[in-house]
Amino acid sequence: MELIQQDPDIHAYLAASEAVDHDHPLVRDVAERLSRDHPDAYSYAEAAFELVRDTIPHSADSGDLRVTWRASDVLEQRTGICYAKSIAYAALLRARGIPAALCYQRLADDDGSAPAVHGLVAVLLPGTTGWARQDARGNKPGVDARFSVEKERLAWTVRPELGEVDYPELLAAPHPAVLAALKAARDRPHLWRTLPTEL
What we know:
Pfam families: Transglut_core. This is Transglutaminase family protein. InterPro entries: Papain-like_cys_pep_sf (IPR038765), Transglutaminase-like (IPR002931). By secondary structure, this protein is α+β, with helices and mostly antiparallel strands. The protein has one domain (about 5-195): C8orf32 fold. Helices cover about 35% and strands about 15% of the residues. It has a 4-stranded antiparallel β-sheet with strand order 4-3-2-5, with helices on one face. Helix 1 packs across helix 4 and helix 2 runs antiparallel to helix 5.
């Protein structure tokens, strides 16, 4: 699949925003600490991925009812769903000058029911051939996502026969439908009822 930059200006994928708030002191502090042990872009991107994947539990896995949507809140409260964790990972990448895009899949249950949009991050590292999607959702039985710029190691591979979709667009900010659902949710059960089913 060919990934498509929504904005042709690469600087859009380095910018801070309301959600991807990499100008926040907490985000900058985490990025600074990570970069001490991982000074090059590749090792930093991998370390930031593992930090978000492994040390911030997906709220559905942990049972946490809180909803986070700003990168700084995700890092402070140490919880979030895939969208929030993707926002946090993108912010940590951008904090070190690494272009990061938000991107999405449409996934469903094994019978094709209950479709929902799933959040990913695409990273553009120096010396690589192009954008590479990463899934920092968090591993669990049956899910083994890993950092990779050569061959995708996402949590799930889409099944077109079930109506699942890889959206090729690389967005500089969270999709408006995703951000609206996060911001409007009183808690995770409310969010679960209002998740976007397609983009």
